[in-house]
Write a structure and sequence with these properties.
It is built from six helices and nine strands. The protein is mainly α and about 290 residues long. Strands 2-1-3 form a three-stranded antiparallel β-sheet. The chain has a two-stranded antiparallel sheet with strand order 4-5. Strands 6-7 form a two-stranded antiparallel sheet. The longest helix is centred in the last third of the chain and has 100 residues.
């Protein structure tokens, strides 16, 4: 349904009227034949018909389009009275801003916010009504803290209400304690599982380090044994070197003193025999 044409100030162009309800267009749509309709009106029409209500041309919901911009601008510039005019509102504003005004209008009829109250009151008088509404909530004058919601609640039993409130608080406290207990147990279980997992990982790392240390110690002992063997071989080689040097010195001395070939042969026999005996000594060589 469109806006009641009686609310508008001045002349309203015929092209801005809905072809179905004949009121001023509200949320308008346009058919391919350029006839305009309120969205609610044309959708309701097409439920039972498949043509334009003006010229009977075939149309479908998928063919409907927004109103031309120039027509939309003309529509938005129309001036009209607030719908609360009968209650005293004298506001006249453009169609473009009427919805915003009516949502905030002081003369709008709104329901009382108290549960059980069916009174419709102007927005400007709501605060005054809430102060005297028989359904308003207030605390018990005896000081028990009970919230009175209706006239019947004024005869309530304060002791019973306090007991009920105490039971509710006790139940709520028990629930909270149980929730906290479950949460703490869950956290402890999670931390315990994490610690066990961490301990297992650390234990594996320790075992791996022990294994590596054992292999390293074995390698060190092997290297030390090889180093001792190599030192012994070097000492043996040094000893043989000294013996050879002494033999060579003796040979050189004998060669200088010998003047005849026969005497050279006789003197060379003994040192050469010593040299051969040295060569025949077995030597062990260790390869590192």
């Amino acid at each position: 349904m469109g806006y009641d044409i009686e609310r508008f100030v001045g002349y309203v162009n015929e092209g801005l009227l809905c072809s179905i309800c004949r009121d001023v267009l509200e949320d308008p749509l346009q058919a391919p034949c350029e006839h305009a309709f309120c969205t609610a009106c044309i959708h309701g029409w097409l439920v039972h018909h498949s043509n334009c209500p003006e010229d009977r041309q075939m149309i479908d919901v998928s063919l409907l389009r927004p109103l031309y911009r120039y027509m939309k601008n003309d529509l938005n510039r129309l001036q009209l009275h607030c719908k609360n005019r009968e209650y005293g509102c004298e506001m006249v504003c453009s169609l473009e801003s009427i919805d915003r005004h009516e949502r905030e209008c002081e003369y709008s009829q709104i329901p009382c916010s108290n549960a059980g109250c069916t009174v419709q009151i102007e927005r400007r008088n709501l605060d005054g009504h809430l102060a005297v509404c028989e359904y308003r909530s207030r605390e018990c004058p005896n000081g028990c803290g009970y919230t009175i919601l209706s006239a019947e609640d004024t005869q309530h039993n304060c002791v019973a209400e306090l007991r009920t409130e105490l039971e509710l608080l006790r139940s709520e406290m028990i629930c909270r304690v149980e929730e906290a207990k479950h949460e703490m147990e869950s956290r402890l279980d999670s931390q315990r599982r994490h610690m066990v997992q961490k301990e297992s990982i650390l234990q594996n790392e320790i075992e791996e380090l022990k294994s590596q240390m054992s292999r390293m110690m074995s390698d060190v002992r092997s290297l030390m044994a090889a180093e001792r063997q190599h030192r012994q071989e070097l000492e043996q080689a040094e000893l043989e070197k000294r013996e050879l040097m002494e033999l060579l010195k003796g040979l050189q001395k004998d060669c200088r003193l010998t003047t005849t070939e026969g005497s050279r042969k006789s003197t060379n026999f003994r040192p050469l025999a010593r040299l051969e005996s040295v060569k025949r000594k077995p030597r062990e060589v260790t390869v590192i």
